[in-house]
């Protein structure tokens, strides 16, 4: 296996694993965002 | 007199109070979102077209993925802002990885910022040129183009889109260059207005597109599989002849993602506006992030998707790749004239938002370079203020020079520009995210929020979320190095040049600053203070505040010193260190606040004071804008008078209005003060800032007096005073204005305002019967009446 193929494999792993983790980030922050939007106690809209 | 005078202190030095907190006017999260979206939202006009040229018809899925991923990048920015109020790339990378990598990251960020201008300007030009050409074509199809013109142009006359785009981009860049040289202030009001108009267009676009889909149907773009990704001749860069991109499916996804990543340019603005967000800051930052996230996902993401679904393949890339939204407008259902009108509206909105992005690029680059310059990383020569306008014109000239060079070299090719642009975008994010990862272990200060999820193994925190975002960014950035050859070559050359300039300047400055610091220490003693307080400056209430900016125009200081007995009244000379939107994200140390320019300025001020043999106190305040700084300083110091020179850009009335507006923004309780503007010919205009007794016209006084005479004839009202009449009248006015007669009142006031004439007090007064005054009443009137009153009572 050439060096470039190994590099590509590493990059692919990073990308896939990264996206899997990012999906969790998006779900968790999304739930928090809904809470932030519903909490209008301190809202200052000018 | 206080000890903060120019009288030598014990060690023979003049004490200068340097405030370290920027005086800001805070903005709501809606305005903050509008400021960011002026940059972030503008990419909707070109990102989809560029991505499709690179990877084919499945590009919209990648653009949507980028816009989804942008939510996670935003979370990284929220965490950095929860740690540092100025949580931009430079600060975070410097904190985590040190000065060298901070310089490298800021070089990449500069590449991003500088290219924002040409990309936006050229894109706007492409939309305008496209509209002109299509209008001519439609006119020709209807036989409206004379055959002579047809013969002259050997067919339908068309303008060169790239040439028009270049000319337009140069014109817009030069316009904003001049505006920035003059020192226009970035206005959140204007940004909000642009986003309101853009929202109207987006709603119309989405509504009409969905209606069109319902009427004529449409197909989703092909899903992003290796078979569906069609690379162009240039989209594989150094891997053009390699088999790798065709061997690995996931690599194809990374390449596609990398070609679409420019769609999320503008995230850095989130860190820059954070300082100016109103309380509660973190919650409002999150709200801002949600607004810009949803907006850019809908606008940039869905528009790219709809374009592929509605515009036929044969014209989409060939004709509309550089003005995709215009193509979308032309392929809706409905009469041609209506579609053309909507396209014109799209062009107007594109002109507004993309021109705004050109300005943001100059303001942002100027802010970043000012920041690194203040940190000693760029030679002081760049920071020398413009003689007339006081702006850092050399930095602005450098930025605009580079932008003009880029526009001409690209010759209006939006694809080339977009390709290069992605380099700065992705690498600045990589540096930022890696630094945030490092800071998870190195930073021990307060951190109000963290990117989730985080696990603990044997007491060690594993930042899974942050690391995941970092892995996606790093893998994309590395693949981009191979596939985006234009970006890699131009980005590396640009970054290397900037990095060399920064490193060389830093070395030169280090030697120079050591010498300057030694000199300064002999003359001035800097006292750092978190905020401006009267006690800190050591002055009495009722003092005179004299703002100074240009050491060549200190006439107003001379005027004050001629007329003020400094034993009785203190004189405070202040200068505001301005940070614009781009620079507000960065903090300044005391030494940065008091550079060699401020040293020269205060040396001159002290020398003027010495020539009068009078004492002055010196103050430096960081500020978002000079008027807020003056109003807040006058408020904090209990100043009775502010004396300033005549602005080169404003009339005295405009100056008074600007200061009055800044005063209104200060929360209660606050005191009023007098503003005196000393003109070059020695003429002085005086204004009262804050609520004050208005100058009453004689007619008004007569009317008031007649009313008073009549009212006091009523049984039980003999003891009524003139001011009681005014109170009653104003209360009734307030009631009427707040309720039924508001429109009538506004109409009346507007009529007189336009006519420039006074309200008809005399007419009303003459309708009130004259009552002979009862001499006995004179003794009842209080001392608050005007001289006219006293004369007749």
Chains forming the largest contact: A-B, 30 and 43 residues
Would you identify the regions of chain A where 5 or more consecutive residues have pLDDT less than 50?
none
User: How would the global form of chain B be characterised?
Assistant: globular
Number of E strands of chain A? 0
The major sheet of chain A is characterized as:
none
Question: Number of DSSP strands of chain B?
Answer: 10
In CATH, the topology of the largest domain in chain B is named Amino acid/polyamine transporter I
Report Rg of chain A: 19 Å
Relative helix content of chain B: 55-70%
Number of helices of chain A: 1
Q: Say what oligomer this is.
A: heterodimer
What is the average of the pLDDT values of chain A?
Answer: 85
Q: Tell me the β content of chain B.
A: 5-15%
* Broad structural category of chain A: mainly alpha
How many angstroms separate the termini of chain B?
A: 46 Å
Could you name the CATH class of the largest domain in chain B?
A: Mainly Alpha
Q: Radius of gyration of chain B, rounded?
A: 31 Å
Major beta sheet, strand line-up of chain B: 4-1-7-6-5-8-9-10
